[in-house]
Amino acid sequence: MTTMTAQQRREVDKADHELFLADCPTHHVLSMIGDKWTALVVSQLASGPRRHSELRSALPSASQKMLTHTLRSAEQDGLLTRTVTASVPARVDYELTPLGVSLLPVLATIKAWAENHIADVLTSRATHSALARTP
Protein backbone atom coordinates (compact mmCIF):
# COMPACT_ATOMS: atom_id res chain seq x y z
CA MET A 1 0.00 0.00 0.00
CA THR A 2 1.33 3.42 -0.94
CA THR A 3 0.78 6.41 1.24
CA MET A 4 0.53 9.96 0.03
CA THR A 5 2.51 12.79 1.44
CA ALA A 6 0.67 15.82 2.82
CA GLN A 7 1.65 17.74 -0.33
CA GLN A 8 0.22 15.02 -2.59
CA ARG A 9 -3.06 15.02 -0.60
CA ARG A 10 -3.30 18.81 -0.97
CA GLU A 11 -2.74 18.49 -4.72
CA VAL A 12 -5.44 15.82 -5.03
CA ASP A 13 -7.84 17.90 -2.93
CA LYS A 14 -7.12 20.97 -5.07
CA ALA A 15 -7.70 19.01 -8.29
CA ASP A 16 -10.98 17.62 -6.90
CA HIS A 17 -12.09 21.11 -5.91
CA GLU A 18 -11.22 22.51 -9.35
CA LEU A 19 -13.25 19.71 -11.01
CA PHE A 20 -16.19 20.53 -8.74
CA LEU A 21 -16.00 24.22 -9.64
CA ALA A 22 -15.71 23.41 -13.34
CA ASP A 23 -19.05 21.55 -13.16
CA CYS A 24 -20.80 24.01 -10.82
CA PRO A 25 -23.31 26.25 -12.66
CA THR A 26 -23.48 28.70 -9.76
CA HIS A 27 -19.72 29.14 -9.79
CA HIS A 28 -19.78 29.87 -13.53
CA VAL A 29 -22.57 32.44 -13.24
CA LEU A 30 -21.09 34.19 -10.21
CA SER A 31 -17.75 34.39 -11.98
CA MET A 32 -19.49 35.84 -15.01
CA ILE A 33 -21.51 38.55 -13.25
CA GLY A 34 -19.24 38.99 -10.25
CA ASP A 35 -16.49 40.86 -12.00
CA LYS A 36 -16.36 44.61 -11.59
CA TRP A 37 -17.92 45.62 -14.91
CA THR A 38 -20.33 43.01 -16.31
CA ALA A 39 -23.24 43.84 -14.01
CA LEU A 40 -22.74 47.55 -14.70
CA VAL A 41 -22.69 47.04 -18.46
CA VAL A 42 -25.81 44.85 -18.34
CA SER A 43 -27.55 47.47 -16.19
CA GLN A 44 -26.60 50.21 -18.66
CA LEU A 45 -28.17 48.19 -21.48
CA ALA A 46 -31.42 47.62 -19.56
CA SER A 47 -33.02 50.68 -21.15
CA GLY A 48 -32.16 49.58 -24.68
CA PRO A 49 -29.31 49.44 -27.18
CA ARG A 50 -26.33 51.68 -26.55
CA ARG A 51 -23.39 52.71 -28.65
CA HIS A 52 -19.92 51.90 -27.48
CA SER A 53 -19.23 55.60 -26.92
CA GLU A 54 -22.37 55.91 -24.75
CA LEU A 55 -21.22 53.02 -22.59
CA ARG A 56 -17.78 54.63 -22.24
CA SER A 57 -19.41 57.86 -21.10
CA ALA A 58 -21.69 56.04 -18.66
CA LEU A 59 -18.76 54.08 -17.17
CA PRO A 60 -15.92 56.61 -17.13
CA SER A 61 -13.80 54.68 -14.63
CA ALA A 62 -13.65 51.67 -16.95
CA SER A 63 -10.64 51.80 -19.23
CA GLN A 64 -11.16 51.33 -22.96
CA LYS A 65 -9.40 47.98 -22.74
CA MET A 66 -11.52 46.78 -19.79
CA LEU A 67 -14.79 47.90 -21.37
CA THR A 68 -13.90 46.14 -24.63
CA HIS A 69 -12.92 42.98 -22.74
CA THR A 70 -16.15 43.06 -20.70
CA LEU A 71 -18.30 43.57 -23.79
CA ARG A 72 -16.59 40.71 -25.63
CA SER A 73 -16.99 38.39 -22.64
CA ALA A 74 -20.66 39.30 -22.22
CA GLU A 75 -21.22 38.69 -25.93
CA GLN A 76 -19.43 35.32 -25.71
CA ASP A 77 -21.60 34.41 -22.69
CA GLY A 78 -24.73 35.25 -24.67
CA LEU A 79 -25.76 38.26 -22.59
CA LEU A 80 -25.58 40.82 -25.39
CA THR A 81 -25.27 41.24 -29.11
CA ARG A 82 -22.87 43.48 -30.96
CA THR A 83 -24.01 45.12 -34.17
CA VAL A 84 -21.59 46.95 -36.44
CA THR A 85 -23.07 49.39 -38.93
CA ALA A 86 -20.85 50.30 -41.86
CA SER A 87 -20.31 54.03 -41.72
CA VAL A 88 -17.43 56.41 -41.20
CA PRO A 89 -16.58 55.94 -38.43
CA ALA A 90 -18.10 52.50 -37.94
CA ARG A 91 -21.05 52.48 -35.56
CA VAL A 92 -21.09 49.73 -32.95
CA ASP A 93 -24.23 49.09 -30.91
CA TYR A 94 -24.73 46.69 -28.02
CA GLU A 95 -28.06 45.25 -26.94
CA LEU A 96 -29.14 42.71 -24.36
CA THR A 97 -30.23 39.30 -25.59
CA PRO A 98 -33.23 37.58 -23.97
CA LEU A 99 -30.70 35.82 -21.74
CA GLY A 100 -29.24 39.18 -20.71
CA VAL A 101 -32.71 40.59 -20.05
CA SER A 102 -33.47 37.59 -17.83
CA LEU A 103 -30.49 38.59 -15.67
CA LEU A 104 -31.92 42.05 -14.88
CA PRO A 105 -34.25 40.94 -12.04
CA VAL A 106 -31.38 39.02 -10.45
CA LEU A 107 -29.15 42.10 -10.57
CA ALA A 108 -31.99 44.24 -9.18
CA THR A 109 -32.35 41.84 -6.25
CA ILE A 110 -28.60 41.93 -5.56
CA LYS A 111 -28.64 45.73 -5.77
CA ALA A 112 -31.56 45.97 -3.33
CA TRP A 113 -29.88 43.57 -0.91
CA ALA A 114 -26.65 45.57 -1.08
CA GLU A 115 -28.42 48.86 -0.45
CA ASN A 116 -30.37 47.39 2.47
CA HIS A 117 -27.43 45.64 4.11
CA ILE A 118 -24.27 47.60 3.29
CA ALA A 119 -24.30 49.33 6.69
CA ASP A 120 -24.42 45.93 8.42
CA VAL A 121 -21.56 44.63 6.28
CA LEU A 122 -19.42 47.69 6.92
CA THR A 123 -20.12 47.55 10.65
CA SER A 124 -19.17 43.89 10.74
CA ARG A 125 -15.96 44.57 8.83
CA ALA A 126 -15.01 47.39 11.19
CA THR A 127 -15.74 45.23 14.24
CA HIS A 128 -13.74 42.33 12.85
CA SER A 129 -10.86 44.62 11.92
CA ALA A 130 -10.82 46.15 15.42
CA LEU A 131 -10.84 42.70 17.02
CA ALA A 132 -7.99 41.56 14.80
CA ARG A 133 -5.86 44.52 15.95
CA THR A 134 -6.53 43.82 19.62
CA PRO A 135 -3.62 41.92 21.21
From TrEMBL:
Protein name: Helix-turn-helix domain-containing protein
Listed InterPro entries: HTH_HxlR, WH-like_DNA-bd_sf, WH_DNA-bd_sf
SUPFAM superfamilies according to UniProt: Winged helix' DNA-binding domain
Domain HTH hxlR-type: 24-122
Keyword line: DNA-binding, Transcription, Transcription regulation
